[in-house]
Amino acid sequence: MARLPRLYAPSVPQLVEARFAHPLARASDPTPADELDGLKVMLEREVREHKVSLHAWLLLNDRITLLATPPDERSMPRLVQALGRRIASAGAPGRVFAGRYRSALVEPGTWVLPTMVWLESLPSQLHYVDRPEIWPWSSARDHTGATVSAILTDHHDYWAGGNTPFARQAHYREKLSRGLSGAEGLRIEKALFGQWAVGEADFLAQLSNRASRRVAPAPRGRPRKVREEASG
């Protein structure tokens, strides 16, 4: 089966995940802090180099996960490729990533904040830490007010949470603490795994007119034949 071309639409955020071919460590092992710090520096360089608007990010022992709006269709693939080259030049053995990275388009106004919560909750979901905001290698600390990152470009949906930084941080802390429903998380995971778009029906219909390819799976089964009525 031929692999799908990359899904892209101008000004639409992308959820991106690249898995390492050789994890830095198991989740139960001591945290490889030096390696994760090095990855963060590499990510910062490539985000600036490729002028990608980075809304949320996460580094784990086995993956890099990003939510970003690239300036054009080629910027995100080039960013991931450049990261792979930097990691390889730092001494990573063999292939850096386990196959192609996965990506999904995310509906602004409805699904950006849930996707940020899903991404930043992964360290606690996968039992690295008890609470997402104490994992040092993600944007959760920035969005909740613990740190300030120069590489983040806050999405409009995050800004809509309040008129001041403190109000926005409090609004997001509440969302992160509450988490997602199982159905919300599953929709995001299915979109990422299938490399589709996550959004409501109206958004998907509009997006289909300007995206680089189909934005949702085709209906299962063979198309129904239309019976031709005899004339007369």
Account of the protein in words:
The chain has a single domain (14-204), classed as Transposase IS200-like (Alpha-Beta Plaits, 2-Layer Sandwich), CATH 3.30.70. Helix content is 38%, strand content 12%. It is built from 8 helices and 5 strands; from the N terminus they run βαββαβαααααβα. The protein has helices at residues 33-49, 75-89, 112-125, 140-143, 156-159, 165-178, 182-194, 201-207, and strands at residues 14-19, 53-60, 63-69, 102-106, 197-198. It has a 5-stranded mixed β-sheet with strand order 2-3-1-4-5, with helices on both faces. The model is unreliable at 226-232 (pLDDT under 50).
CATH architecture: 2-Layer Sandwich
Compute the number of helices: 8
The backbone outline, from C-alpha atoms, is globular
Write the H/E string, N to C: EHEEHEHHHHHEH
**What distance lies between the first and last C-alpha atoms, to the nearest angstrom?**
46 Å
Rg over C-alpha atoms, rounded to the nearest angstrom: 19 Å
**CATH overall fold name:** Alpha-Beta Plaits
Widest sheet, order of strands: 2-3-1-4-5
Number of strands: 5
Determine the fraction of residues in helical runs and give it as a percent range. Answer: 25-40%
The top level CATH class name: Alpha Beta
Give the number of domains. 1
Note the beta-strand portion: 5-15%
Given as residue ranges, the uncertain stretches (5+ residues, pLDDT < 50) are 226-232
Largest sheet: 5 strands, mixed
Structural class: alpha+beta
CATH superfamily: Transposase IS200-like
